[in-house]
Design a protein that fits this description.
With 116 residues, the protein is mainly beta. It has a single domain, classed as Virus Head Decoration Protein, Chain: A, CATH 2.40.300. Helices cover 7% and strands 34% of the residues. The chain is built from one helix and eight strands; from the N terminus they run E-E-E-E-E-E-E-H-E. The chain has one helix at residues 101-108; strands at residues 22-28, 33-34, 39-43, 48-51, 63-67, 71-72, 78-88, 113-115. The strands form two sheets. Strands 1, 3, 4, 5, 7 and 8 form a six-stranded mixed sheet that branches. A two-stranded antiparallel ribbon has the order 2-6. The longest helix is centred in the C-terminal third of the chain and has 8 residues, at 101-108. The radius of gyration is 14 Å and the shape is globular. Residues 1-6 have low confidence and may be disordered.
């Protein structure tokens, strides 16, 4: 189809099953240094993502995507690839303060991100 592109993705320890995987590029908030597998929430006012912490009050307290690649936004916001859907291995996830595997499993399920 015109205007469509296809990108191949490397194998990752994040993948935990055969559910279809979809990716997107998002902006990572300045100051974040994150590893592949970080569970992110969106800062509502800025439309940027950061590590989801349960006590946050800026919107990022609600996990919604999982980082596909390591990222260093020390010097300012950067674009990075995230998983929008798919099966995830719980052992490969990096959780923010206050989150547990159980809490992110429940939060990510409506987004078709399934934590095993």
């Amino acid at each position: 189809m015109p205007g469509m592109t296809q990108t191949s993705h490397r194998q990752s320890q994040l993948r935990g099953g055969d559910f279809p995987v979809r990716f997107a590029m998002v902006m990572i908030a300045a100051g974040e240094v994150l590893a592949e597998g970080s569970v992110l929430g969106e800062v509502t006012a800025a439309e940027e993502y950061k590590l989801s912490a349960s006590a946050a009050t800026d919107g990022s307290e609600s996990p919604s995507v999982v980082l596909w690649e390591d990222v260093d936004a020390t010097d300012g916001p950067v674009e990075a690839e995230v998983m929008l859907t798919g099966d995830l291995r719980s052992a490969a996830l990096t959780l923010g303060e206050g989150h547990t595997i159980a809490s992110v499993r429940k939060a990510l399920r409506p987004w078709s991100l399934f934590v095993h």
